[in-house]
Amino acid sequence: MMTIPTPSRAENVDLSTLTTMATPGVARLVITAPDSDSLQGLLRDLAREHEPFILLGGGSNTIFTRREVQPAIIRLGEGFDFIESIGEPRGGRLRTGAATNLTTVLQFALRQGLMGLEWAVGIPGTVGGAVVGNAGARGEAMGDSVERVLGLTRAGEPVCLERGDLHFEYRDSNLRDLVVTEIELRLEPGEPDAIRARMAEFRAARRGQPYGDHSSGCVFRNPSGDFAGRLIDELGLKGFAVGEARVSPAHANFLINDGDATPEDVVALIEQVRQRVRESRGIELRTEVILVDPDTVEAAS
Ligand SMILES: Cc1cc2nc3c(=O)[nH]c(=O)nc-3n(C[C@H](O)[C@H](O)[C@H](O)COP(=O)(O)OP(=O)(O)OC[C@H]3O[C@@H](n4cnc5c(N)ncnc54)[C@H](O)[C@@H]3O)c2cc1C
């Protein structure tokens, strides 16, 4: 009889290790599911017991708004960390587990002579997080290359979505309520030198972004026809801080953790920036980062 590996559990995990913003706190329980079967069993158990949970990829687009996280945090383990070519050689189709690093996928595509992900250079996190949030840069985005998505509902039922079922928009998709486990990508054949040149262009466009600091990338979505960073900069808010959370002096849409920023500092800074922009420009900035209030997370039904 085949045995299903048991998810591994870690208690009282230092929250600062789970997100790139690295705010402090304690996660009561972090469960890592090693493969699809164990993930399915876990989700079904949690749904049956009406236990809320928080799904986390690389934590590079997530900010916890409190220091104590009582709901279980679920992560996808090694069985979701893979990438391979499928179909015809150089046919452009790749299959990847949702926990695979986005950079790993980009590097694999480069080695295969496949083009279309160069915008992803320098973007941290998992490919699952990138697909769900339709990560992108300079008008190109993850959703452009996604052909099929496999996953589970939050109650553990399998789902397979084909291209026509998928909806991507600016930093969003119709996959938010799923646990994405596997993604099929379709890329275009390209010369490695041309791919490297495009990667270099995207890398150059990122110069000036605060890469050495703890951050979650851009915090606000760009309002229609404008840039959130430009609006914040125009108000002279670069360097503005609440506690140890600061508007990056390098890029006004990046909020950085100067070292000991608490979730309260980060939330207050986001609110103050929003308020200044609202009062002086009449524009309501919406967050691009996912703010997770652990106290309001609901169980799957
Ligand atoms: C320095 C820096 C630069 C960045 N630059 C960019 C950029 O140029 N463009 C851009 O778009 N983003 C950028 N980001 C933000 C971030 O890296 C991306 O949004 C990334 O794709 C998030 O992936 P993640 O795995 O870290 O997601 P997480 O933060 O772990 O999760 C984000 C959301 O996705 C959900 N999620 C994660 N995995 C899954 C899954 N398997 N199934 C279902 N839901 C899932 C989570 O529940 C959460 O709601 C940047 C971040 C940093 C720190």
Folded structure, characterized:
With 301 residues, this protein is α+β, with helices and mostly antiparallel strands. The chain has three domains: 8-78, Uridine Diphospho-n-acetylenolpyruvylglucosamine Reductase, domain 2; 80-200, Uridine Diphospho-n-acetylenolpyruvylglucosamine Reductase, domain 3, CATH 3.30.465; 210-280, UDP-N-acetylenolpyruvoylglucosamine reductase, C-terminal domain (Uridine Diphospho-n-acetylenolpyruvylglucosamine Reductase, domain 1, Alpha-Beta Complex). Helices cover 23% and strands 29% of the residues. It contains six helices and 22 strands. It has helices at 36-48, 102-112, 127-132, 192-205, 228-234, 263-281; strands at residues 8-14, 26-33, 53-55, 62-64, 68-69, 72-76, 83-86, 93-97, 114-115, 136-137, 140-141, 146-153, 158-162, 168-169, 172-173, 178-186, 188-189, 214-218, 241-242, 245-247, 254-257, 290-292. The strands form seven sheets. Strands 1, 2, 3, 5 and 6 form a five-stranded mixed β-sheet that branches. A five-stranded antiparallel β-sheet has the order 7-8-16-12-13. The chain has a four-stranded antiparallel β-sheet with strand order 18-21-20-19. A hairpin with a 6-residue loop joins strand 7 (83-86) and strand 8 (93-97). The longest helix has 19 residues, at 263-281. The mean pLDDT is 95. The structure holds flavin-adenine dinucleotide. Residues 20, 55-62, 76, 98, 123-126, 128-130, 132-133, 135-137, 178-180, 211, 215-217, 290 line the site of flavin-adenine dinucleotide.
